Structures are given as structure tokens and as C-alpha cells.
């Protein structure tokens, strides 16, 4: 009996990437372990402070480790392409772009080394891109979807809030540019707005500081505004996250007894013991 390609793709997806299966969870855990390993390699290599050249005549330990991790992630990438119902949708999705960005640098450097200024610069750039692999660990955080839904549902309020903050930054930066001027470090309007952003976030680097009495009054008002508005986006996201968690609990109904309001981590119904849907 012939087996269709679509059935093989479905079986591959269920075996390797379906979070509802034990094998899928184990495979995702293995990929997460390799993601941690790749990031650990970056930190160890950076701590040694040694430069390595990716040439075929000089193979170092970190080159072998990078090759091994890259091959693993390459196999994972092509397995996802093969098993995905819509491969093009995966390629241009957020996770697809992250997966592609973390495996391409090594192949690009070896196939077209002339496009790089030098191997040292290319190696540093590749190490920076490899850090993106830590984002793959976000796949193992189901609550992250609730957090993203909260941000998405509060997007209009957040856009309005940050637009208001941007206007305030421009206004206060212009005031300080007029009050202090180039004499005290406010050489351009861009530098003045930069100072306003640093001040309203209560960071205060101290590279640009007001010296006139009126300038210090404006700076004090801006600092008070910063303390007043710093909790607004946190409150918005917290409110929407609470609503998202409540909706998620209400939606998780037992298929047998229709009992609702189960805990997020619950796997079985607290009334009849039936398995709950994910």
C-alpha cells in the first residue's frame, strides 16, 4: 500500500513538532538544549577572547562546535519545512526567519568568503546573529502567547501613550535647547531630545546636564513626569493579561462534564477526571 507524501508530512509533524505528543515535546526540548548550548559556546568563546578564522586548513574546537550546532539546526529547519502544512507561511513567519538567520551565516561565509571584509569581522557578526537562537527557547513558554495577546489587545492604548510621550520629549527637548543652548552641551535639537528621553526614563547618564536655574526647573518637572507615567504601560499590559488569563480559563471546558475555570497547568478535569484539551 502506497503512502502519500501528505500523510508522511502529518506523521512527521506529529512525531517531532506537535506539542500535544510526548515525542514532540521531547524533540522541542532537545532543540531547546541545543539552543542553550549554542549560546553557552558564544559566552565561553567570548570569555577566552580568542579570534578564530573559519578556514578549512585550520579547524579549531569552536569551529567544530559551531559546525555541529549549525547542522542540527539546519536539519530541524528542513524538517519543519517538510512537515509544515504551508511551508511558505513558515519561511516568512517570525520563527522561520529566526531559524533561517541562525543557520545562514556559516554557509554564507564558507561559500562566498569574498563578500566579507575579513574573517575576523565576519566571525564577530556571525556570533552576534547566533545569539538569536536563544529566542527559540520562547517556544517552550506557553504563557508567552498570553503575554503577546495582552500586548496586542492593548496596542491602541500603548501607541497612544508612546505617541504622547514622544510629543512631550520633543517639547521639553526644544525648551532645553532654547534655555541652555550650545554653551551647556545642548548643541542640537537632537541632543536636547536625547537628554529629555534619558531624563524622563530616570536613567540620567550625566553627559548633558542643565546649568541654568530655569533649565533645572524644567529638568525637575520632566523627572516628575517620568515617575508619574512609568507605571502606565505596566498597568495596561497587566490588565489585559489578567483578562486574557480569565478568558483562557473559561475557555478550557471539560469535554465530558463541561466544567470550566480550570487552572492553566491542569491536565485533567477537577470534577470528573477527564483529560482537558490544550
From TrEMBL:
Residues 27-244 form the Ion transport domain. It is a multi-pass membrane protein. The chain crosses the membrane at residues 30-49, 61-79, 91-112, 159-179, 185-205, 217-237. PANTHER family: POTASSIUM VOLTAGE-GATED CHANNEL PROTEIN SHAB (PTHR11537:SF254), VOLTAGE-GATED POTASSIUM CHANNEL (PTHR11537). The keyword Transport applies. It is found in: Membrane. This is Ion transporter. It holds the Pfam family Ion_trans. The keyword Plastid does not apply. It comes from Lelliottia wanjuensis. One of its GO terms (molecular function) is voltage-gated potassium channel activity. GO terms for biological process: action potential. Keywords: Ion channel, Ion transport, Membrane, Potassium, Potassium channel, Potassium transport, Transmembrane, Transmembrane helix, Transport, Voltage-gated channel. GO terms for cellular component: voltage-gated potassium channel complex.
